[in-house]
Write a structure and sequence with these properties.
The structure holds two protein chains of two kinds.
Chain A lengths: L6 H16 L6 H27 L7 H14 L8 H23 L4 H21 L9 E2 L5 E4 L2 E5 L3 H24 L1 H11 L1 H6 L4 H27 L1 E2 L6 H14 L6 H16 L2 H4 L6 H15 L3 H9 L5 H8 L1
Helix pairs in contact in A: 2-6, 2-9, 2-10, 2-11, 3-4, 3-9, 4-9, 6-7, 6-9, 7-9, 10-11, 10-14, 11-14
Chain B lengths: L2 H32 L6 H19 L2 H22 L9 H23 L15 E3 L5 E3 H23 L1 H11 L1 H6 L4 H23 L9 H16 L4 H21 L4 H15 L9
Antiparallel strand pairs in B: 1-2
The chains are: A mainly alpha, B mainly alpha.
């Protein structure tokens, strides 16, 4: 059973949430955009954490569903008019879910290193398809000229063009994703997928059709990656094939490692750390000419993080607040 | 499609497949024996291609560049294994993915600093810069035949080393039962260092040989890495035989995909992989 965070951890989480909620009131549009990125990427990492941290499936192609839903928004947006959020958002997520179902039906048959390689290979196939097909706007990407709006009948209730409103919309999506994933993990279905992570053969012996459970988990994760991709496309109003690329998948895994696998909320800390480091590495005032080649700094940081940081920020937080989640405990015992 | 054209396509497919084999065989051995997934494997193909570029400019000849490049690649592989990969043997795949992903970021950016972001060409050695006329209009470049020949020689040498020597016996034993090899008193650390550096060296050699055929450009290693993954998945992890069959299949599928289905040529190899996975989830020669 996934344990709920204890009171101190919840207090820290609420504090972080309050800090995030206060960002728009700083009145700095740069930081508002940065915080929007953090929140959207946290949703993306959290969706992958369902696979990596709770189902035991290390997917290295998760960006495919993120990027496809981003393109979903682009394709559903009329050129000079706003798309309706009520149509475009579910449709984009459904697109991600459908592709995740098709790819998942194949990849979930494999395990371990095969699974990693096959998810990566199919994601790259989708990447090349999007990049090379004229339908998607080619390798330079495509613009969404008018941001989507929430429209019922003829009345526009809310537009994502409003930076602050969009930010709070993303924050609500993050909380919604977190709560829904916790509910899923605490349900009988969640028990089964966590059992699969521990010992798939035992779950099979108990009579569970583990293939179906793993596939369902893969599709749920893909759908939430789609939510994140849709929101990401709305930040800049721009999509490019790189959104489906394997660097994007690698970044999501990096966020999970930084945040600490085994806790859902770790993804939020991972996203904060990732976006923060990226922003610092690009800072010429600190790194001088190396800032132009910040990928090197990121690479060194990644390697150091793997070698030195074993349980991520969440692991450290959970230790500090006094109670360990079972999966973290186990990693230490191993 | 007439028979000469078909013949040329088959030769191209085999040549591409043989080159892929050099990369995929190292990848599959590192997976199979060391249990490590190395994303940076393709980066050494890229390093090989750029070494061919610079060392050919320096020495004026591609064979000399090869002779210089091989020890450099071996040292790079040995250093990477001893300093970084060694920490990954007891870690899960997640950590392996990320650490080697960090290497990709560093190596790609280093390449961009040293050589810039433009595409470069490497000249074919003049004594191989010939074409065999097949008909009045069609001919076949000798350099491609030479590349296929070198790859075949390397593949046969690899087969002989693995099947006929004591070292090869250790490699095979390490692939089938790691603990037993250690218990029998074989220095598994040295074996790992050897397998890893040899794999890196083969990838770099493939990059050097391919440089005159393809142009040398940033990101050249990443596409090759993904295709090599497809080869390993089709052949089965740890199986050299599987890597060989898989490479040739993918080489032919890629070339014929471009000729027969030009709009979907990118997707043909993945469709092949999907078909193999449906039939045998652990690859053609893989163990369950």
């Amino acid at each position: 059973m996934i344990t709920l965070p204890n009171a101190r951890t919840i207090a820290v989480l609420l504090l972080v949430l309050a800090a995030l909620a206060s960002v728009p009131f700083l009145g700095d549009s740069f930081y508002l955009k940065l915080a929007t990125r953090v929140i959207v990427l946290a949703i993306f990492a959290m969706s992958l954490e369902l696979l990596i941290g709770y189902t035991g499936l290390v997917s290295f192609g998760h960006a495919a569903y993120f990027g496809l839903a981003a393109y979903g928004l682009q394709l559903l947006s009329p050129e000079y008019d706003a798309a309706n959020l009520l149509v475009a958002l579910p449709a984009s997520m459904a697109l991600a879910a459908l592709v995740a179902l098709a790819v998942g039906a194949l990849v979930v048959r494999t395990r371990g290193i095969y699974f990693i390689m096959v998810t990566l290979a199919f994601a790259q196939m989708l990447f090349y398809l999007v990049r090379d097909s004229a339908w998607f706007g080619g390798s330079d990407g495509a613009f969404i000229y008018v941001k989507p709006v929430l429209r019922i009948g003829e009345t526009v209730l809310f537009s994502l063009d409003d930076r602050t409103g969009f930010y709070f919309f993303c924050l609500c999506c993050l909380v919604f994703t977190y709560v829904l994933l916790v509910v899923i993990l605490r349900s009988p279905f969640g028990q089964v997928i966590m059992g699969i992570k521990e010992n798939e053969h035992r779950m099979q012996a108990l009579g569970y059709n583990t293939y179906r459970y793993k596939l369902a988990s893969f599709v749920i994760a893909g759908t939430f990656a789609g939510l994140a991709g849709f929101l990401f496309a709305a930040i800049d109003g721009f999509v490019s094939p790189e959104l489906l690329g394997w660097h994007q998948s690698g970044n999501a895994i990096l966020m999970i490692l930084l945040g600490g696998s085994g806790t859902l909320f770790g993804s939020l800390f991972g996203a904060i750390a990732f976006v923060g480091m990226e922003d610092i590495f690009k800072e010429r005032a600190i790194f001088g000419p190396l800032a132009d080649h910040w990928q090197i700094l990121m690479g060194v940081f990644v390697i150091a993080a793997v070698l030195l940081l074993r349980r991520g920020i969440a692991g450290w937080l959970v230790t500090w607040t006094g109670r360990r989640s079972p999966s973290l405990q186990e990693r230490d015992d191993a | 499609m007439d028979s000469v054209f078909l013949f040329i396509q088959i030769l191209n497919g085999l040549q591409y497949g043989l080159l892929l084999f050099l990369i995929a065989s190292g990848l599959t051995l590192v997976f199979g024996i060391m249990g490590v997934i190395n994303l940076a494997h393709g980066s050494f193909y890229m390093i090989g291609a750029y070494m061919a570029l610079s060392l050919t400019q320096l020495t004026g000849s591609l064979p000399a560049a090869l002779l210089l490049g091989i020890p450099i690649a071996l040292v790079l592989g040995y250093g990477m294994e001893g300093l970084f990969i060694v920490h990954l043997y007891r870690r899960d795949h997640l950590d392996q993915l990320l650490l080697t992903y960090g290497f990709i970021l560093i190596l790609n950016e280093t390449q961009s600093i040293i050589w810039g972001d433009d595409a470069h060409g490497v000249p074919v050695p003049s004594w191989l810069d010939l074409s065999l006329p097949l008909t009045d209009t069609l001919s076949y470049p000798v350099y491609r035949l030479a590349v296929s020949g070198v790859c075949l020689v390397l593949a046969i040498a690899m087969y002989l080393v693995i099947q006929r020597t004591r070292l090869g016996m250790m490699v095979r034993a390490g692939e089938s039962n790691r603990e037993m090899v250690e218990v029998l008193g074989i220095n598994i650390r040295q074996l790992y260092a050897f397998v890893f550096s040899a794999g890196i060296c083969l990838a770099a050699v493939a990059g050097m040989l391919a440089a005159p055929i393809e142009s040398v450009y940033p990101g050249i290693g990443e596409q090759v890495l993904i295709i090599s993954f497809v080869v390993v998945v089709i052949g089965g992890i740890g199986s050299i035989k599987g890597a060989f069959v898989g490479s040739l299949l993918i080489g032919l599928a890629q070339v014929f995909g471009q000729v027969l289905l030009p709009e979907f040529s990118g997707a043909v190899v993945y469709a092949l992989m999907a078909a193999v996975l449906l039939w045998r989830p652990t690859g053609l020669f893989g163990r369950a």
